[in-house]
User: What shape does this take?
Amino acid sequence: MDIAFIETKINEIIAELEKEVLEIVSDESLDRRETNLRMKPLSATKKILLNALDSIKMVQAVSQEERRA
Assistant: This one.
């Protein structure tokens, strides 16, 4: 499994999410409530992606340890 490739792709997705966040934050037509409502899915998606990446790395590390044993 190419962890570096997966990490690169996840980071690309996160960069796109951050662009969307900046657009939402800079949209002055939205009130605070609307801004927060639009931000929640983006921040949740980022957390999910980062957790998935951590899980993938953990599985890779466990797999390598099992091969050594």
